# Entry
Amino acid sequence: MQAFVLVQTEVGKALLIAELIRQLPGVLTAEDVLGPYDVVVRVEAADGTELPGVVKQIQRVSGITRTLTCQVAAH
# Structure
């Protein structure tokens, strides 16, 4: 199961936070971007019960102000 996590950060911290998030288990990619969100993260978990734990790890990174998780639809 995969999801995108859209992350808003404190001003000027997007690059650092993206680098920190890349090191977390379950994270496939983390890119700093322009727009209403500062970092876009793609995560993977074995199933729906593990996905919240992966997202909570991201939310604990210092400097994050808000996240929005978008689960990838199964095909």
In short: DSSP finds two helices and four strands in the chain. The first strand starts at residue 2 and ends at 9. Helices lie at 14-22, 51-59. Residues 14-22 form the longest helix (9 residues).
